[in-house]
């Protein structure tokens, strides 16, 4: 294990521990200021969806990007938690019978299986709105302009022009609304929206908190886009080569539904080559940050080398 890998692993673990504790506080039963009450079943299901699993890569990226500009502490942690709440909502809704119809997530029953479908829908709704509540709170940043930029950024990344729009394209790719034969460009667009947009914003959010200048922000967005694309290609490779037991979720879904991925279009060797090229692109975007960005460089290598 290299020094940079060791540092990355330690920081990823540290971030995951802090995020878990902060999420637990945000999802406690006691009503927050402005709330009337928190229904017990809803809270239990929200905690089931958001706690006790996942690498917390998205909050980690936010925390590390902010660290580049000397901005650490509660603000980056809260923004990372907001993005993670949004991500968890997307997983809950993605697993629903009307979407991917999955029974397994992170090695245990999905929320609609552990509770029921109606509760799962409300869990997703509540996690999503809580994410924006966290971003809009002055505890996240004292500057209302920064909070506004964060809210706008997450809305754009997660909404119709980002993740939700990508999910719509994903459903269409299954042939639900007529014949679907996606080109390479269409697959890339789908993945950029459904998966890449939130990962890119996770990096951008740290730069916003750190008051990055235009050039630094542009470079970090380029890094985030490359990392997001690499994440999805690596995920497609894992879906073909790994098992449900190893991944903690059902594999081979795209093949079952006849939905093309870059593995299909480029071949396995081509997909691996794509991953290597994306790592190089991500690392090139960080050149101006020198050794301060070594943990972010390790993060993109982790994304393509991971086994779960």
From TrEMBL:
GO-annotated molecular function: metal ion binding; prenyltransferase activity
UniProt KW keywords: Isoprene biosynthesis, Magnesium, Metal-binding, Transferase
InterPro entries hit by this protein: Isoprenoid_synthase_dom_sf, Polyprenyl_synt, Polyprenyl_synt_CS, Prenyl_diphosphate_synthase
One Pfam family cited in the UniProt record for this chain: polyprenyl_synt
Cellular compartments per GO CC: cytoplasm
Gene Ontology biological-process annotations: terpenoid biosynthetic process
Gene3D superfamilies documented for this protein: Farnesyl Diphosphate Synthase
Presence of the UniProt keyword Magnesium in the record: yes
Cofactor: Mg(2+)
Entry's transmembrane regions: none
PROSITE patterns referenced in this protein's UniProt entry, alphabetically: POLYPRENYL_SYNTHASE_1, POLYPRENYL_SYNTHASE_2
Family, per entry: Belongs to the FPP/GGPP synthase family.
PANTHER family linked to this entry: FARNESYL DIPHOSPHATE SYNTHASE
Protein's name in the database: Probable farnesyl diphosphate synthase
């Amino acid at each position: 294990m290299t020094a940079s890998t060791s540092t990355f692993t330690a920081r990823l673990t540290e971030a995951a521990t802090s995020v878990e504790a902060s999420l637990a506080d945000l999802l406690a039963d006691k009503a927050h200021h402005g709330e009337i009450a928190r229904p017990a079943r809803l809270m239990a299901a929200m905690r089931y969806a958001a706690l006790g699993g996942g690498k917390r890569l998205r909050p980690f990226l936010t925390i590390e990007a902010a660290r580049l500009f000397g901005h650490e502490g509660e603000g980056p942690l809260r923004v990372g938690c907001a993005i993670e709440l949004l991500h968890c909502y997307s997983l809950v809704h993605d697993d629903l019978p009307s979407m991917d119809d999955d029974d397994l997530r992170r090695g245990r029953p999905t929320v609609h299986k552990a509770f029921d479908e109606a509760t799962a829908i409300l869990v997703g709704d509540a996690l999503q709105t809580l994410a924006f509540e966290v971003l809009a709170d002055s505890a996240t940043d004292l500057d209302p302009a920064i909070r506004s930029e964060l809210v706008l950024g997450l809305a754009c990344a997660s909404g119709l022009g980002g993740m939700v729009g990508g999910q719509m394209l994903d459903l269409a790719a299954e042939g639900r609304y007529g014949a679907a034969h996606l080109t390479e460009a269409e697959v890339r667009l789908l993945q950029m929206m459904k998966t890449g947009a939130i990962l890119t914003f996770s990096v951008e959010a740290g730069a916003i908190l750190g008051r990055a200048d235009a050039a630094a922000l542009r470079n970090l967005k380029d890094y985030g886009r490359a990392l997001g694309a690499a994440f999805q290609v690596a995920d497609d490779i894992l879906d073909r080569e790994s098992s449900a037991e190893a991944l903690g979720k059902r594999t081979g879904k795209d093949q079952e539904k006849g939905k093309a991925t870059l593995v299909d279009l480029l071949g396995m060797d081509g997909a691996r080559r794509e991953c290597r090229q994306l790592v190089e692109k991500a690392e090139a975007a960080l050149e101006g940050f020198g050794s301060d960005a070594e943990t972010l460089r390790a993060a993109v290598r982790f994304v393509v080398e991971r086994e779960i």
